[in-house]
């Protein structure tokens, strides 16, 4: 249940309408509150206080109408500029970065401020009365309109600065890394102990009963889509309740086709078809990948920026090198963290759940593999890859992690030697590789 609630919150936070809708609701509450106070205040309160709006009904209507009209016009301009920025980002840095801009709280607050001010003015405008029989001017409410208009002006200045800075390559890369950093801290909160070996697919298979796959019951997926999250706590509780061992065949980020085997349940005699929906409900699928539980997707967002920068159409190796720097920081941060065990036991020590393990090797492959292939003849990119691997060395805490980085250093050096033709360039790669190998040996 907690996973599904978090997924729902992630969807709200990733949408462009959520914050403006909340701010619009607050504007309605504020309008009701100020008009209620205005009705309770004495008629001459504006004259006695001095700082409240003291004009008549016509002046109040003109002010409110002017502010409302300007706010909705400005909101349209902000929306148009945002669409242009999204189009630019999609074409230059990749469509998968659109989600990062959609989640940008600053832009959402800017749009929400203008919409909220517009709604507030409309609601106050309806209570202004100026007829021969009755006259009512909500002095306090109109005064709040001045404050909202001033706030909107400040927010507009901020928006211009924010857009200008957010479309810079370094700002985009840093923002993507911040999301990646938050994903690492959320998925791997515990520090890795020195020398503690990770459990891989081989150890998972050995922990299962003999002939598990042959005698187990395959549970088919009832829909297709990218696996955004798995409610492992709910799945473990389900297995304990029905005295089952469940092996999950997919991890977050993979595409699941309808009818594919999501889970194998064992023993077969404890299973019945009425339980299929309950198991499927613990798998949250969607149209696209998210970094909610998908560490690899968060890494590949940075990789995509680097690959586009290295493409012949853009040919910007400096942006690619910036991505490599941040990827090295992310890999080093991952190396310090304890990866969750793929085996889940109940309070009696009985195995209940076996999931696809997340390994350090997969993260390193996702971070450096494709960039190495795309580096082509860019010597500085090969050198920066080796330097990034060397920078991870002080954070290594297991021999397995060191072996993974050594393997990638060898691949980068070999690919670089084959790509460059000049002898001096090859010598630079060899020298950088030796420094990397020495750093990994000392870690």
TrEMBL record:
Extract the signal peptide range: none
Which UniProt keyword terms apply here?
Membrane, Transmembrane, Transmembrane helix
| The keyword Mitochondrion is assigned to this record | no
Pfam families found in the cross-reference section: DUF2254
Matching entries from InterPro entries are given as: DUF2254_membrane
Q: Which residues cross the membrane?
A: 12-33, 63-88, 109-128, 140-160
Q: What is the protein name given in its UniProt record?
A: DUF2254 domain-containing protein
Q: What is the native source organism of this protein?
A: Geobacter hydrogenophilus
Tell me the organism's taxonomic lineage.
Bacteria, Pseudomonadati, Thermodesulfobacteriota, Desulfuromonadia, Geobacterales
């Amino acid at each position: 249940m907690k996973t599904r609630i978090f997924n729902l919150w992630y969807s709200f936070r990733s949408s462009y309408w959520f914050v403006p809708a909340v701010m619009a609701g607050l504007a309605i509450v504020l309008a009701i509150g100020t008009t209620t106070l205005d009705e309770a205040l004495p008629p001459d309160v504006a004259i006695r206080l001095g700082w409240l709006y003291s004009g008549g009904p016509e002046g109040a209507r003109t002010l409110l109408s002017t502010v409302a009209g300007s706010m909705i016009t400005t909101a349209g301009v902000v929306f148009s500029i945002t669409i242009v920025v999204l189009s630019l980002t999609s074409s230059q840095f990749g469509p998968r970065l659109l989600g990062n801009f959609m989640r940008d709280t600053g832009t959402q607050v800017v749009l929400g401020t203008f919409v909220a001010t517009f709604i507030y003015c409309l609601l106050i405008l309806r209570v202004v009365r100026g007829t021969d029989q009755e006259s009512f001017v909500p002095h306090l409410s109109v005064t709040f309109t001045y404050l909202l208009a001033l706030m909107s002006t400040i927010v507009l200045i901020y928006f211009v600065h924010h857009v200008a800075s957010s479309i810079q390559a370094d700002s985009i890369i840093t923002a993507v890394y911040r999301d990646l950093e938050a994903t690492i801290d959320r998925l791997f909160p515990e520090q890795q102990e020195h020398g503690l070996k990770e459990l891989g697919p081989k150890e998972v298979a050995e922990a299962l009963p003999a002939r598990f796959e042959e005698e187990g019951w395959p549970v088919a997926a009832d829909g297709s889509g990218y696996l955004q999250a798995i409610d492992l706590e709910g799945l473990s509780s389900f297995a304990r309740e029905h005295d089952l061992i469940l092996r999950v065949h997919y991890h977050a980020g993979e595409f699941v086709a309808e009818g594919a085997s999501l889970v194998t349940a064992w023993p077969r005699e404890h299973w019945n078809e009425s339980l299929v929906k309950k198991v499927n409900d613990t798998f949250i699928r969607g149209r696209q990948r998210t970094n909610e539980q998908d560490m690899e997707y968060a890494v590949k967002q940075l990789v995509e920026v680097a690959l586009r920068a290295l493409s012949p159409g853009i040919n910007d190796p400096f942006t690619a090198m910036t991505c490599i720097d941040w990827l090295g920081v992310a890999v080093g941060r991952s190396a310090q963290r304890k990866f969750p065990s793929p085996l889940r036991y109940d309070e009696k020590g009985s195995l209940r759940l076996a999931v696809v393990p997340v390994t350090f090797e997969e993260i390193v492959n996702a971070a450096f593999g494709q960039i190495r292939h795309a580096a082509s003849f860019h010597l500085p990119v090969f050198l920066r890859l080796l330097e990034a691997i060397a920078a991870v060395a002080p954070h290594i805490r297991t021999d397995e992690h060191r072996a993974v980085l050594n393997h990638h250093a060898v691949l980068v050096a070999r690919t670089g030697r084959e790509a460059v033709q000049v002898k001096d360039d090859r010598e630079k790669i060899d020298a950088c590789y030796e420094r990397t190998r020495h750093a990994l040996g000392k870690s």
